[in-house]
Specification:
This protein has 174 residues and is of the alpha+beta class. The protein is built from two helices and 13 strands. The chain has two domains: 72 residues; 71 residues, no CATH class. A hairpin with a 2-residue loop joins strand 3 and strand 4.
């Protein structure tokens, strides 16, 4: 619950000691006045620690409820660990969680999966079941493959250059 001042303004500030929490996704915030959504302007300071909500139609007898997003950073070591459970409250108000599969440097992480022909294979993000025969391609593997494609230099045959020059001259003279 929030209480706007007589000018229709509410200021919220994150005051956690470790400064791990910041405001996030202001476009998804919802302000209800007597259980009816109202359009307001939401701004965050550069550090996302202070939020200002303006343009609230003020009434001293109304009840105001604000739903907003907070982002929390990992204070232990800044890294995730395999089998660590991550959870957050989704916009519908329900807790959602996921389990970290592994913790590796990004270049060693999975970019995509391929079948035997090299075609990309989709996996079910909910079950994370990898189809039979699918091979993991890391970010590094993908970068190397694309880099190899760039090494292929295409050279024009000398016999084709004369025709190209003649065609260019013809187009330029038109």
């Amino acid at each position: 619950m929030v209480v706007p001042n007589g000018n229709g303004i509410v200021v919220l500030e994150r005051t956690d000691v470790n400064e791990a929490e910041t405001f996030d996704l202001p476009l998804q915030w919802v302000l209800l006045k007597d259980d009816v959504p109202v359009n307001v302007t939401k701004t965050l300071d550069p550090f996302k620690r202070k939020a200002t909500i303006t343009g609230i139609p003020f009434s001293p007898t109304s009840v105001y409820k604000l739903s907003y997003w907070i982002s929390t950073k990992n204070l232990t070591d800044g890294k995730f660990a395999a089998n660590e459970e991550l959870s957050y409250r989704n916009p519908d108000g329900f807790d959602t969680s996921m389990i970290v599969e592994s913790d590796v440097e990004q270049y060693k992480g999975t970019h995509h999966y391929e079948d035997a022909t090299g075609a990309w294979v989709d996996i079910d993000p909910l079950s994370q079941t990898i189809p039979s025969g699918a091979v993991k391609v890391t970010f590094l593997d993908n970068l190397r493959k694309n880099n190899e494609k760039l090494r292929q230099i295409k050279i024009l045959k000398p016999s084709a250059i004369k025709g190209l020059v003649n065609e260019f001259a013809k187009v330029m003279s038109e």
